[in-house]
């Protein structure tokens, strides 16, 4: 949670309860936990559950475990960095988008809740890595933000899209705006992932809403976004006529699964809540649509004009990917590259059974030398002498000829001569090495003097060997690593507008 929210605010949510809230009146006011954001039993556990669902869904999309994730408990888009707002305590949407940004270069956020998604817009108001698009009621309505001219700042200019609407908008008018605007967004912005907030308080008959959308009209927006084939995280949101919220999200779940649900609801334990019709769909009312064709056309043209000012998507690859917010083993990721028999597991198994290892195997480099192979021992090849081999010379094979194969006398004589020459070269090299060692020993003795030569307790110098050479190399590598600068943490998605504001006292 502290990836977006302040440490003090998260700690407050963890400790506050209905029993001790009277002891923290100053903090209640500071963090806006009053009136529409009351303290209740299990508050922090509730925040953990719905936030974990959204972040966990983002992790699944990052790992390409699925192309669509649903968390109807999420979508609380009003919460700010340092305070609760509008029934929202923790902004799971911002946290999920931050998780998606670890893998995806650009993320698109769409909000069809009747209220403006102010918390999400504020978090990404100055960055171009997230585009926020909100269709909402504007004017004398909570939260009072989301003007058509609010388009973002700095690098985020034109990456905040607001579509202000008036009372009574119906399915036809809504989709006349939604589809052309979203088509332009997908063309110009080209996101790598989409987060869709499907607030149901924009339906007709909502206790706090004033739109006139049917369930089919509401779901048409979600169905349209699935046609672009982009990873999709679908979240819930507002909705205050509970039976209609359940109808809407049930129907939209079927749409995402490619199933057309029957209108007649089957009998169940909650049938009494859906009487007397027991139908899945609801009928729009006869309320007046205050969104005139001229108004809708003006809003659409202005939004499309702003979108045309967005520069093309840059092609910059990612190099460092931050770790997942939720551990991979908790997400049931069972893919293991070592399960096929190679890698670390095979190396551990090999060292756990020394019976099958050749003598002095521990003193050899794990990387096979050029002469390693069948017949190398018989030929007398020393792996440490591979570097003496001419670059243009191909290694000679000592593998016996297959049964039935024939060779002329000339080939046998040539092979024998080659072997003798190779043995002679090896003997000469060995003799030269002995003379070199003797010369070194005499020089060392001369430098040490007679006193060092007469000391019987002086240990003999360690003979050079593969183990000593490998130890010296390891000590040298440690010295190089210790001089390297520490690995820097990957940069975040960009500057957040919420970071510029001062906390309320």
Summed up:
This protein has 505 residues and is of the alpha/beta class. It has 13 helices and six strands.
**Tally the helices: what do you get?**
13
Order of helices and strands: HHHEHEHEEHEHEHHHHHH
Classification by helices and strands: alpha/beta
Shape: elongated
Record field, number of beta strands: 6
Strand content: 5-15%
Unreliable spans are: 336-343, 356-408, 450-459, 461-505
Strand order of the largest sheet: 1-6-5-2-3-4
What is the gyration radius calculated from CA atoms? 36 Å
Reported for the largest beta sheet, the result is:
6 strands, parallel
How far the N terminus sits from the C terminus, by CA atoms, comes to: 21 Å
Average pLDDT number: 79
Helix content: 25-40%
């Amino acid at each position: 949670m502290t990836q977006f929210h302040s440490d003090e605010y998260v700690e407050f949510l963890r400790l506050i309860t209905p029993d001790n809230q009277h002891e923290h009146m100053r903090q209640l006011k500071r963090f806006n936990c009053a009136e529409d954001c009351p303290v209740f039993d299990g508050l922090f556990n509730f925040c953990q559950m719905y936030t974990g669902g959204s972040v966990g869904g983002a992790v699944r999309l990052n790992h390409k475990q699925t192309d669509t994730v649903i968390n109807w408990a999420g979508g609380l888009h009003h919460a700010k960095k340092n305070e609760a707002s509008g029934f929202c305590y923790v902004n799971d949407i911002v946290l999920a988008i931050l998780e998606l940004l670890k893998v995806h270069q650009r993320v698109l956020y769409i909000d069809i809740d009747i209220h403006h998604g102010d918390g999400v817009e504020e978090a990404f108001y100055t960055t171009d890595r997230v585009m926020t698009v909100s269709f909402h009621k504007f004017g004398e309505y909570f939260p009072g933000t989301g003007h058509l001219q609010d388009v973002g700042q700095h690098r985020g200019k034109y990456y905040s899209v607001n579509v202000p609407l008036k009372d009574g908008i119906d399915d036809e008018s809504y989709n006349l705006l939604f589809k052309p605007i979203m088509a332009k967004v997908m063309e110009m912005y080209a996101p790598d992932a989409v987060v869709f907030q499907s607030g149901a308080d924009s339906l007709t008959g909502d206790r706090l809403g004033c739109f006139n959308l049917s369930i089919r009209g509401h779901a048409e927006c979600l169905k349209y976004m699935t046609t672009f084939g982009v990873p999709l995280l679908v979240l819930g949101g507002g909705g205050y006529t509970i039976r209609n919220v359940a109808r809407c999200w049930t129907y939209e779940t079927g749409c995402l699964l490619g199933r057309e649900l029957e209108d007649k609801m089957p009998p169940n334990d909650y049938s009494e809540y859906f009487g007397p019709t027991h139908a899945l769909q609801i009928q729009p009312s006869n309320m007046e649509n205050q969104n005139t064709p001229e108004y809708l056309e003006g809003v659409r043209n202005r939004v499309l004009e702003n979108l045309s000012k967005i520069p093309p998507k840059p092609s910059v690859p990612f190099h460092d990917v931050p770790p997942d917010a939720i551990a991979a083993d908790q997400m049931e990721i069972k893919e293991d590259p070592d399960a096929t028999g190679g890698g670390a597991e095979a190396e551990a198994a090999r060292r756990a059974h020394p019976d099958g290892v050749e003598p002095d195997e521990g003193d050899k480099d794990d990387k096979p030398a050029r002469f390693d192979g069948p017949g190398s021992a018989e030929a007398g090849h020393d792996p440490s002498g591979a570097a003496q081999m001419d670059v243009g010379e191909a290694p000679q094979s000592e593998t016996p000829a297959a049964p039935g194969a024939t060779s002329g006398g000339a080939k046998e004589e040539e092979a024998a001569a080659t072997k003798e020459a190779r043995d002679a070269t090896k003997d000469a090299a060995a003799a030269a090495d002995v003379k070199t060692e003797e010369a070194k020993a005499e020089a060392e003795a001369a430098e040490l003097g007679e006193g060092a030569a007469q000391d019987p307790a002086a240990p003999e110098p360690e003979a050079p060997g593969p183990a000593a050479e490998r130890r010296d190399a390891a000590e040298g590598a440690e010295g190089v690593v210790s001089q390297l600068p520490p690995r820097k943490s990957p940069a975040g998605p960009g500057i957040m507008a919420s970071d510029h504001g001062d906390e309320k006292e």
